[in-house]
Specification:
two-stranded parallel ribbon; 9 helices; alpha/beta; about 35% helix; Rossmann fold
Length: about 270
């Protein structure tokens, strides 16, 4: 197939392009840094493709109205430019009707642009691997003398997926032409404490903190234009997190086997 992938230079995108090319597909890797794609313009010079995989996401200010969010506008634009293409949108488990974070809200909005009878919406859990948000979190945890545990750190709502298993799931979705909604994560949810311990790879020095007061404080800092390593989006996503039934969609190895089998995890 002729396939276009937005966000092709990202943590997931690079691995997915490699997988699709190995499967024999003709892949157009769309990247903002090379000018082949932008959220402002979409990909106006891209000829029609059989399949569009939308991965790109731009993090930034969240005070604009949702309909004016660059991610929402950008997805609408490129979907319109490729009307005849089947689409796979890599959403998030943060995307649901009660989402509080702009990230979750924008992903939920973009999902509404697609037709589940023809297209495929994949909602991954927190992606474990040497890169992306996971690596950023690891660096933060290594730098901190104490590890903040918001909302008690014991709420069992975080579902995770190893990068190799996510790429395998996306590759299968492409090759089998799957349609509909798919929640891609290991079935057992984890606590924030367990996630931190997994990412850091050693014992924690936990510091329990009240979630809502810290959230209000972070919002005040952000209104004043101050930038901190932790932002309100992080806490809003954690506060509104829900768990999904995933056994119906995917069958995975147990977590220890999966993590040990991924060479990229050796950071």
């Amino acid at each position: 197939m002729k396939i276009a992938v937005t966000g092709a230079n990202g943590f997931i995108g690079q691995r997915l392009v490699t997988r699709l090319s190995a499967d024999g597909h003709d892949v157009a890797a769309l990247e903002r840094k090379t000018g082949s794609y932008s959220l402002a313009e979409g990909a106006p010079n891209l000829p029609p493709v059989d399949l569009l995989i939308h991965l790109a996401h731009q993090f930034g200010p969240t005070r604009t109205a949702l309909d004016c969010d660059p991610n929402v506008l950008g997805a609408s634009r490129i979907f319109s430019q490729q009307k005849s293409a089947r689409k796979i949108f890599v959403s998030s488990m943060s995307a649901h009707a009660e989402a509080l974070s702009r990230y979750g809200q924008s992903k939920w909005k973009i999902e509404s642009f697609l037709n589940p009878a023809r297209d495929c919406i994949v909602r991954p859990g927190f992606v474990i691997g040497a890169g992306g948000v996971c690596q950023h979190l690891k660096l933060q945890l290594e730098w901190l003398p104490l590890h903040p545990m918001f909302y008690g750190g014991k709420k069992r709502t975080i579902q995770i997926i190893a990068i190799d298993d996510l790429i395998a799931a996306l590759g299968n979705a492409v090759n089998s032409e799957r349609t509909g909604f798919f929640n891609v994560a290991y079935p057992e949810p984890y606590t924030l404490t367990e996630l931190y311990r997994l990412v850091l790879g050693r014992k924690l020095r936990p510091l329990p903190l009240p979630g809502d007061p810290i959230l209000y404080l972070l919002k005040a800092f952000e209104r004043a234009g101050l930038s901190l390593p932790l932002n309100s989006e992080n806490l809003l996503g954690l506060k509104a997190m829900i768990t999904y039934e995933t056994a119906r969609d995917m069958v995975f190895k147990s977590l220890p086997e999966a993590v040990e089998g991924i060479p990229e995890w050796k950071m």
